[in-house]
Amino acid sequence: xxxxxxxxxxxxxxxxxxxxxxxxxxxxxxxxxxxxxxxxxxxxxxxxxxxxxxxxxxxxxxxxxxxxxxxxxxxxxxxxxxxxxxxxxxxxxxxxxxxxxxxxxxxxxxxxxxxxxxxxxxxxxxxxxxxxxxxxxxxxxxxxxxxxxxxxxxxxxxxxxxxxxxxxxxxxxxxxxxxxxxxxxxxxxxxxxxxxxxxxxxxxxxxxxxxxxxxxxxxxxxxxxxxxxxxxxxxxxxxxxxxxxxxxxxxxxxxxxxxxxxxxxxxxxxxxxxxxxxxxxxxxxxxxxxxxxxxxxxxxxxxxxxxxxx
Amino acid sequence: xxxxxxxxxxxxxxxxxxxxxxxxxxxxxxxxxxxxxxxxxxxxxxxxxxxxxxxxxxxxxxxxxxxxxxxxxxxxxxxxxxxxxxxxxxxxxxxxxxxxxxxxxxxxxxxxxxxxxxxxxxxxxxxxxxxxxxxxxxxxxxxxxxxxxxxxxxxxxxxxxxxxxxxxxxxxxxxxxxxxxxxxxxxxxxxxxxxxxxxxxxxxxxxxxxxxxxxxxxxxxxxxxxxxxxxxxxxxxxxxxxxxxxxxxxxxxxxxxxxxxxxxxxxxxxxxxxxxxxxxxxxxxxxxxxxxxxxxxxxxxxxxxxxxxxxxxxxxxxxxxxxxxxxxxxxxxxxxxxxxxxxxxxxxxxxxxxxxxxxxxxxxxxxxxxxxxxxxxxxxxxxxxxxxxxxxxxxxxxxxxxxxxxxxxxxxxxxxxxxxxxxx
Lengths: 310, 424
Known about the structure:
The complex is a heterodimer of chains A (310) and B (424). Chain A is mainly α. In chain A, 71% of the residues lie in helices and 3% in strands. In chain A, helix 3 packs antiparallel against helix 4 (90-112) and helix 3 (59-86) packs antiparallel against helix 8. Chain B folds into two domains: 24-270, no CATH class; 343-423. The two termini of chain B are 48 Å apart.
């Protein structure tokens, strides 16, 4: 019982973090058709900037300024990088972001070193909030929950209740029509790209000290973010949310299950000592997202809630 | 009656001489070069470098069968390299422990054939779900499959050998061509033989109807369908061949390194082969060859000079993507092409300007990167080119960073603006 409740809480928090990371990418991908390989690198930049800023001032300033900084870098990348490459087609754009991820990784390694930095949870939030079944639950996780839900509501409000949001939604499906109506589509693209990167940066700020801040975090997170976007479906934030939640819960529950293949398929004569039988469900957890990716692309290429195929 | 349709039209088909020059001669030259190299008495280091280059050339060319010729962007090509290599590795162990039977008579020299078969089998199984669509879905599936196989690599120890991988001994079984396969010079002949076979085979593949159809499917799958071909099937067959040649490269690597670890199927080598092919130039058959040579050289030589070589590699890749999408081969063929059509004298001024600009900008970047690397290591080491003592505290450092960088960018912008004026 306690395993289930803890897994549920942790899974929801992880899923929200994943959604924050991938919501920007979903917007960018649906609008420009660019699958941004460097998106997780912006997440990493967010965490490192927050580490630096909270080192010289406080975590709360970092919470505001690190995402803004990351967003500005993202907008600059779109304006002076992606736009030049755009003429050469989608593959060139994809490769551009691939190279960008490479470079950001290396620069981070040079500036901050190869080992994890000591980016900590702020003292104000570093206490156990409540006790469940005799185990303490850290307040910071609930803080992540609040920030994520707040961002979710803000994003929903901006996209559905403001004029800018309506234009963005229109540009998602009919960029040419929006351009014909006199809106500056390149600038919309730049803004959305920047905002998407800022969201990734925000995820980095609050996720970097919850998970770990090291140069490998972008490589670890990057493919999973793709899974969320592709499984959720093109042009659908709701789909991305659903996919992020499913992934978050699936992974946390898989880690919590203490069973091997032999326990489950033992009735087929699979022995505990055989190679397949000794694989634990927990060790499968990192594979689950990719299994989901491949299966979804095979049987439902448009994703869970997508309105068109990739 | 003068039938206008039957009017004499210049025969556009290449003459026998042209065919020979364009299709056979480059391969003969390659064969002569690889045969001639040992007569210069290269050292062990050079032999090792050349062998790795040979492996990478075959690997990069097999990747370009997908990306350049088939228009399929794959992020998991190392899977086939790795699985082919593992197949060859297991065969090598079978040869080692064989007493009689099939494996006892199998020469280590022929292991790339096993790799070829292993890669083809892997391609046939994995390609079936992947090749239904081109473009982004294909890229995503290849990424997912690569991650799955990489994770499985650490799970099935009897196949992949766990963290330490599996290793073998190449000096077993019957000898072929009198090569004991012990010293690197023997292995060089082995690599050279399979390099020529691989390059020749892959070039021949581009001349087959299937090779031509793969280019057509890349350019216009809808029209291919109208002509009566199934694009999905064309992609699938090409995918199998690409996997097979990657597996062959894996077989060569298995014999050369005598060890294979699960890292060989991970995303890192998959990314590296993408860089090799693209930096070399995917539009040309020779492009990946150039890319493989340059990147292998950088990997083994540049990494001795600077820790930041991956950063330089990334920068080179970005420059190619942004400003020279036809790759190094595109630059080379652009220059040689201008000789033959007589525009060389007009273009040379602009090229020299661009070269000078790029060189200056790069100089500034190198100073910045090298000083940063030494500063971040924190061992108190300092970047000291030509006896200069460059730290961030030294104002000269900043002069050396900012002045060449600004000057270089200025020159580049001027050169580009002139081109635009010429075009306008």
